[in-house]
Amino acid sequence: MSTIGETPRLRYDEGCLAAHALNLIGDRWALLVVRELMLRDKRFQAIRTGLPGITAGVLTQRLSQLIGAGVAHHDPETGLYGLTGSGRALQPVLVALCHWGSQHPGHDPRRFISPTALMISMSAKINTAAAAGCGTVAGIAAGNEAFTLRLDKHGALLATPGLQNGCDFILSGSGNTLARAIYGPQPVAALQAADIIALEGDASAAQSFVDLFSLRHIGDIVTTGANAGDRG
Fold it and tell me: Global pTM?
């Protein structure tokens, strides 16, 4: 394992800056570990809960590599892992990957979606023009994770951990059922009536808010395939 500042193990023996970045974060699962830490610090098991396909051994290796690369840090007293400034700077990369991935066929929204993954995808797939100036404050609760969502003056989504005072509504469910509410064709009220999600607060505000998000945007490469039934 390398320490901060050391030359990382070479996966790609090139002078390309993209290759250098992949030498730091290009191992399998590494960028998804970063994703799970993007919005809040977590303990080992909480990270693993958001990555159900990863083994404990591989997660231990990836965390060690990310710490060695200066991307993550660990507090032995609290047991919490978190991101450094370098790690947090990867958020635009994750957002761009979400947007790029939504333009290509084969995405299966029935597969596991962690709450943090949903928040980052929402940052990618919001209609910023429609969201600009919207003062709605949304609460999202998914198991042990919760977020308060606000929109800045440009329509960008700002997610902070925890449910704060002043939410116009709170949607509760799993990452997958909440993704269904946000991206799917069924109205929020119908999903609530079917006990797929729970809703507290202003139902009209909730529907207007989720209508700001779509997996399909004009100009996307693909508008058919696995996502053809998603709200566009």
Answer: 0.88
